[in-house]
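We were asked to recover a plausible sequence for a given structure. The inputs and outputs are reproduced exactly as logged, with field labels preserved.

PROBLEM: sequence recovery
POSITIONS: 228
GIVEN STRUCTURE:
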């Protein structure tokens, strides 16, 4: 027993060091992730906005873009000459099988206030709520046609000073979008050409949030991988 006990103690010491080392590495990675405000502990849901600052994001270089700041746990986007917004500053994100969501409120203006640009495989698309004068909802672009021209176009009324939740789901076969609990886009991708609308919105990749001549508040930006 004494010999086995001695051997066991000698074996346990290096094993203990290995486990402690691995635990330290894991703890370091977790602390680094939480420090960015981008990880929700205990789940696979990723908070892309930490509610404190624009860590992980950059202000998109739109000509004449409105001022952008973080206050009271929200991203405040002032009215610009045309488009204003932010884009993710890295590409460590899924390209398919995910859901992207954000909550937005329009305070002033008559156009889209939470355009979501997102990956679709090796390309990108944009979900536009309230474009073209404030009522068009749809996807840009499909087969060269923007959201006002293709079959995803619907018409919705958006009130000022009211929060809306927008959600985009991308799978290999579909793009689906919701406004609050209402599905507003259900697009099959087979034999379709998907691309961002040519122009400034191309600066919003890989994930971007934009407004067009509106005063906007944004909060609760989340990215959720989903099972294939």
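RECOVERED SEQUENCE:
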């Amino acid at each position: 027993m004494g010999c086995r006990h001695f051997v066991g103690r000698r074996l346990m010491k290096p094993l203990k060091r290995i486990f402690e080392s691995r635990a330290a590495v894991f703890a370091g990675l977790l602390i680094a992730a939480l420090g960015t405000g981008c990880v929700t502990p205990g789940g696979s849901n990723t908070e892309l906005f930490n509610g404190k600052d624009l860590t992980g994001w950059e202000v998109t270089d739109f000509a004449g873009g409105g001022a952008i700041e973080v206050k009271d746990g929200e991203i405040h986007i002032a009215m610009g000459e045309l488009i204003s917004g932010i884009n993710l500053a890295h590409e460590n994100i899924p390209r398919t099988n995910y859901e992207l969501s954000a909550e937005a409120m329009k305070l002033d203006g008559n156009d889209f206030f939470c355009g979501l640009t997102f990956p679709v495989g090796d390309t990108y698309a944009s979900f536009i709520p309230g474009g073209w004068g404030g009522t068009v909802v749809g996807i840009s672009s499909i087969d060269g046609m923007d959201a006002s021209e293709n079959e995803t176009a619907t018409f919705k009324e958006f009130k000022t000073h009211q929060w809306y939740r927008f959600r985009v789901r991308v799978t290999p076969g579909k793009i689906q979008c919701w406004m609050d609990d209402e599905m507003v886009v259900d697009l099959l991708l087979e034999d379709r050409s998907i691309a961002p609308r040519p122009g400034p919105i191309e600066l919003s990749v890989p994930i971007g949030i934009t407004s067009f001549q509106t005063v906007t508040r944004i909060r609760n930006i989340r990215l959720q991988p989903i099972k294939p």
